[in-house]
Amino acid sequence: MFGKKKSPASPLVLSAEKFDTLIGPQCEMHGRILAKDSLRLDGTVVGHIEAHSDLPITVVIGASGVVQGDVRAHRIIVAGKVTGNIHALERIELHTSALVQGDIKYGSLAVEHGARVLGLLLQIDSQIPDHSEDEVRAVIRKAKA
Fold first, then answer.
1. pLDDT tens digits in sequence order for the chain, 145 residues long
2. Cα separation, 132 vs 145, whole angstroms
3. What 3-state DSSP class applies to 85?
4. For a disulfide at 106, which of 15, 23, 36, 92, Cβ 3.0-4.6 Å?
5. Shortest CA distance to 122 belongs to which of 144, 83, 89, 74?
6. Is 52 within the bounds of a domain?
7. Residue 68: strand pairing partners
8. Is 6 contained in some domain?
9. Please, where are the H alpha helices in 6-100?
10. 2 lies in some domain
11. Sheet holding 66-68, edge to edge
12. How far apart are alpha carbons 130 and 65 in whole angstroms?
């Protein structure tokens, strides 16, 4: 509690989870990725990343990772940059170096100090029917008025 110094950033440890697909920092991909196993991205993807919704697949975007497109998976960990919407069916973790420019739909959310989100945070609740983005934005406009 006192006297202990916190680490400035909690690194994403590769050995913490099994990643069947690795996209290295020198790799740039254009197009849609459909993941059938867990994926770690340290390079650049221009396009959407999707995982089967019925499988517990994790997508990790490392500190050097960049995604220009939407990301949809069971669990998503972001330490890099995402320009697009994120839909984490179970959980999303935003690390200190994360920058998300888009809306985030999530089951549960963990955010480290310093992470940045430029968009809406929308919690998924299985008891509440899913609403379109237009309906959500209308509610926000009404609340601001």
1. 444 444 444 544 444 567 778 889 999 999 999 999 999 999 999 999 999 878 889 999 999 999 999 999 999 999 999 999 999 999 999 999 999 999 999 999 999 999 999 999 999 875 555 566 677 777 777 777 7
2. 20
3. coil
4. 92
5. 89
6. yes
7. 46, 83
8. no
9. none
10. no
11. 28-30, 44-46, 66-68, 81-83, 99-101, 116-117
12. 30
Q: Which residue range(s) make up the domain with 134?
A: 14-144
Neighbours of 11 (CB within 10 A): 13
Q: Which residue has the tokens 């998924």?
A: 124
Indicate the burial class of 85 (C-beta count within 10 angstroms; 0-12, 13-18, 19 or more): buried
**Are the CB atoms for 113 and 130 separated by under 8 Å?**
no
Q: Hey, what amino acid is at 134?
A: D
Give the global pTM. 0.76
What is the domain count for the chain?
Answer: 1
